[in-house]
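Sequence design from tokenized structure. All designs in this work follow the same two-part layout: the structure record, then the generated sequence. An example of the structure record is given first.
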């Protein structure tokens, strides 16, 4: 869809004050039911911490202890640096791909 929005961007901003006047009470009630006090966002909903993993992998590579990085972090590293690996790649394959990528 190469319409006007794609070409010029959509700069529409919501009228927050009017929204609060018209539905503020209902929106508050909904938020209180959906997200009660003490609600914690589940880990699987949080954004991946690419910076932490990239730093970890680079440090381990420098120290010569790359093999100590777990599979989940190796996969996350590959995603973070956009390194293509098979979805079912084993740890050895991930390590090989990362070592090759890092040079």
């Amino acid at each position: 869809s190469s319409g006007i929005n794609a070409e010029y961007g959509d700069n529409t901003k919501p009228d927050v004050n009017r929204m609060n006047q018209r539905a503020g009470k209902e929106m508050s009630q909904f938020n209180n039911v959906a997200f009660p006090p003490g609600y914690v966002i589940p880990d699987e909903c949080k954004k991946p911490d690419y910076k932490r993993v990239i730093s970890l992998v680079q440090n381990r590579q420098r120290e010569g202890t790359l093999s100590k990085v777990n599979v989940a972090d190796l996969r996350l590293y590959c995603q973070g640096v956009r390194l293509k690996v098979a979805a079912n790649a084993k740890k050895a394959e991930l390590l090989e791909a990362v070592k090759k990528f890092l040079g």
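DSSP finds five helices and no strands in the chain. We note this feature because it recurs in several other targets discussed in the main text.
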